[in-house]
Specification:
Radius of gyration: 32 Å
Number of helices: 9
Largest sheet: 5 strands, antiparallel
Distance between the termini: 55 Å
Helix content: 10-25%
Strand content: 35-45%
CATH class of one domain: Mainly Beta
CATH topology of one domain: Methylamine Dehydrogenase, Chain H
């Protein structure tokens, strides 16, 4: 459905709303199409562009940089075409739940939706007939593609023509003839097929596997009897229809470009054809491939798309062109007079693929790419303020005031100014890629791919970058590095002291001391037992939030690192949180986050595990590579993996608050989690367990003791209660949950006792996000039995929790006796196989 980029166009309904897409899918053939108005001056850029960006189709107004989003695809768009009259458009994707959509461009409404085309595999290329009545698509499983023709103006969901591609060569392009809708041409890298689908009794498909010196890229009808194709070598082979109705290769026009021809565009029925290639040149030829005109001073990178506007009047058959390049530019190109070329930038896009994002106080988004390109994009004016190419791949960016710190894959740190000019010579801070940068005043800390942390001092006029020291204190990749300024009363430092910390996947948190001439490790502490840290962020009240691969969020004191709270979060995500940052709106704090796969979300902070206080949505069809938040907390920016788009999301925390109220207050959401069917028997069972814990606490063995039922139970009964509910914590987890409950009681001035509601919350937040199954236990036992029991004993002694020797002997003996092949132990005692 269409959504407008104008925030005032509709009332907000989601806590995170897509507001703007910066970028197009330049890897597509012809990703941008111009939609000229009937009264527009052909010499001026078109007012509207229609393009594919990630999994969204955009109607982009050039003048105001406004957008209308055509949303419906859950995967990256693989093909986009528009009708000759610019009234209709077709988009397609591939993968599970793939779609083929026909859009009305004026209204943005999906007029026709075809679910799961090509047996659910989706389409890779599409085209629309000259009369806009038919759509042709090619798709299917690898090596088993089919071609389908759809009469989209009817209610039918089945194609009017379908036929397997008689070749394992994947088809890269498909085009209707502009002269006969019954004629279609498609090609792969080494094959070309000519189709006539109107004869239902004997549909014609003639394939050619010509002995060409270079792979084909795309083919189209030059006229009713001739077909041309582009080649990677810059040649153009020509096929002609024979008198018998077949096709034969007539000739090859050599080296019309000196590089790969990416796009061919017919300009009129008289035979002009425009070509765009990797050399960055656009050339226009007649029927005989005699050069008519050319545009060779664009200097914007390899050409990936061409779209025709209206004739300019100087050459009645030569329209203006919108040229798209792989370097992220769309140009309006027109031949003004004689050999004068006017090339006006229409819009710029981010480089691909985007690897990192960072925001500056001046409402600019710093974008880094694997290609070495860095740009500053102003999200208020939606324009590119500065752009620069670096010799190395950019791996991370961070703002230092108005300056931009750039880390590269070769371990260099660059300090760039407001216009991305060098403020100092590049500094070598590592022998591996720089993965994280933290800045505080003149101090900068860099983590690299070898799990080391380097500290540099950036100051002076002119700016000097002085390396202070480098330490490798981790054995696994670093997930976060940050500075922390001590305040008066902190046990770990005096007011104003600057502390540096790093956290890595080895579960170790390291504190460093920064002196004038060196960096030293002050302390190193293991903060997790089994979970692997995946992200860290600072929140108010001088606290840190740590995310782990077990879908847990742990709140720790930023000064003493005492764990204050543990909750499960983002359980609906298939992968754990990999990035998060706090934002403040109104009088409340929130955390926005991204997972390792597709999702971004937000939760209200402090978060107690209530699922209605959190949300998530699919932001990109593939992995999210970078995220950032604006300094005012109003916008979230995300970039996907190779999808060519940076998305701007408006953060509306008030909507999340409204959703949380609708989801229920108090204990209602938690009781639903533990008893979703509202079964009275489950509620009674919970109460019985709680009362039994009171009996144990008060002494169930003495019949002379008068027992009283209370609303609370002692803390030492909590481990038994959560075990009775089905969660078996380790001794470390028991210690952690009791410490957290005791700390909360101490701060509230209450005794060390808990209610049934608190027990339910503890169980829900400490339980396993993915419960263990019997197969998991069987596999673990089978793996243990692959070695000797001596190996198992040594492993438990080294990595397991401390236990008495006799208990360890009992565990090892039990493992040795268990049989994972059937449900009976060797003694014949029925134990359910793994009940012990």
């Amino acid at each position: 459905m269409p959504t407008s980029a104008d925030p005032a166009s509709a009332k907000p309904t989601q806590p995170l709303e897509l507001e703007y897409l910066f970028g197009v899918s330049c890897q597509l053939a012809n990703p941008v199409h111009c939609i000229p108005g009937s009264d527009e001056d052909p010499a001026r850029p078109p007012s509207v562009l229609f393009c594919a960006s990630n999994n969204v189709v955009l109607k982009h107004a050039v003048a105001g940089m406004d957008q209308v989003h055509f949303q419906g695809h859950s995967h990256a768009i693989t093909a986009l075409c528009v009708s000759r009259d610019r009234k209709w458009a077709v988009s397609a994707d591939t993968g599970p739940e793939s779609l083929l959509l026909v859009w009305e461009i004026a209204t943005g409404m999906p007029i026709k939706t075809i679910f799961g085309p090509h047996n659910g595999h989706g389409a890779v290329v599409v085209d629309m007939s000259v009369d806009a009545k038919y759509v042709v698509s090619i798709g299917g499983a690898p090596g088993a593609q089919t071609i389908c023709v759809w009469e989209w103006t009817t209610l039918a969901q089945d194609p009017v023509f379908s036929m397997p591609i008689p070749s394992a060569d994947p088809q890269l392009s498909v085009k209707f003839s502009r002269f006969e809708s019954s004629q279609i041409v498609s090609n792969g890298t080494s094959t070309i097929f000519f189709w006539d689908w109107t004869n239902a009794d004997a549909p014609f498909a003639e394939g050619h596997d010509p002995p060409l010196k270079s792979p084909l890229t795309m083919a189209l009808y030059l006229n009713a009897t001739k077909v041309v194709a582009g080649m990677r070598a810059g040649d153009v082979p020509l096929w002609q229809r024979t008198k018998e109705g077949g096709w034969s290769q007539l000739k090859t026009f050599h080296h019309i470009h000196n590089s790969c021809i990416n796009v061919l565009l017919p300009l009129d029925k008289e035979g002009l054809i425009a070509t765009g290639a990797d050399d960055g040149f656009v050339r226009v030829f007649d029927h005989s491939f005699r050069l008519v005109t050319f545009f060779e001073k664009l200097k914007s990178g390899p050409i990936s798309g061409l779209s025709a506007g209206f004739p300019t009047g100087l050459l009645p058959t030569l329209p203006s062109l919108v040229v798209t390049t792989t370097h992220g530019r769309a140009l309006h190109v027109v031949r003004a007079s004689g050999k004068t070329t006017i090339a006006q930038p229409v819009v710029e896009f981010p480089p691909q693929p985007v690897t990192c994002l960072a925001t500056t106080p001046a409402s600019k988004l710093a974008i880094g790419a694997r290609s070495g390109n860095v740009l500053l994009w102003n999200w208020t004016t939606r324009t590119v303020d500065a752009r620069r190419d670096l010799p190395d791949s950019v791996t991370t960016v961070t703002a230092l005031g108005e300056r931009v710190l750039v880390g590269t894959d070769r371990g260099w740190l660059r300090v760039l100014g407001e216009n991305l000019e060098d403020m100092a010579d590049p500094a070598a801070v590592a022998s591996a890629a720089v993965t994280h940068i933290a800045a505080h005043g003149a101090w900068v800390a860099c983590a690299d791919g070898k799990a080391a942390v380097t500290v540099v001092h950036v100051d002076g006029d002119p700016v000097r970058v002085v390396r202070v020291g480098r330490i490798q204190a981790h054995s696994q990749p670093v997930v976060g590095v940050w500075f922390h300024e001590a305040r008066a009363g902190d046990a770990a430092g005096i007011d104003g002291d600057l502390r540096l910390f790093s956290l890595a996947r080895d579960r170790v948190l390291v504190e460093y001391a920064i002196t004038d001439g060196a960096v030293a490790v002050v302390s190193s502490r293991r903060i997790e037992q089994t979970g692997i840290p995946t992200a860290v962020c600072a929140v108010s009240a001088r606290q840190l939030v740590l995310a782990t691969d077990q879908w847990r969020l742990k709140t720790v004191n930023a000064d003493t690192f005492v764990c204050r709270d543990t909750v499960l979060a983002a359980l609906f995500a298939p992968t754990p949180i990999c990035w998060m940052q706090s934002v403040v709106q109104g009088k409340r704090e929130y955390i926005v986050y991204a997972t390792q796969d597709k999702l971004v979300g937000m939760l209200a902070w402090p978060y107690d595990g209530n699922p209605h206080c959190s949300m998530a949505l699919v932001a990109h069809p593939d992995k999210i590579t970078a995220s950032a938040v604006s300094p005012d907390g109003q916008y979230l920016f995300t970039a996907g993996n190779d999808d060519g788009a940076v998305k701007t999301w408006r953060i509306r925390a008030s909507v999340l608050d409204a959703h949380s109220v609708l989801g229920g207050t108090g204990m209602a959401p938690f009781r639903y989690l533990i008893n979703p069917t509202h079964d009275p028997a489950i509620t009674t069972h919970l109460e019985d367990l709680f009362y039994y814990a009171q009996l144990r606490e008060q002494g169930e063995a003495d019949p002379n003791v008068t027992l009283r039922l209370r609303e609370t139970v002692a803390l030492d009964q909590v481990p038994s209660l959560v075990r009775a509910l089905g969660y078996y914590p380790s001794e470390r987890d028991v210690e952690l949950m009791l410490n957290q409950l005791s700390l909360k009681a101490l701060e509230a001035g209450l005794p060390d006792r808990v209610t049934l509601d608190e027990v339910i919350k503890i169980f829900l937040n400490f339980r396993d996000a993915i419960p263990l199954t019997a197969d998991d236990v069987r596999n673990a036992i089978a793996r243990a039995k692959q070695g000797t029991m001596g190996d198992v004993r040594a492993f438990l002694q080294m990595y397991g929790e401390p236990m008495p020797g006799d208990e360890l002997d009992k565990v090892v003996h039990l493992l040795e006796e268990l049989n994972v092949d059937d449900d009976e132990s060797e003694g014949g005692d029925r134990r359910g196989g793994l009940a012990q």
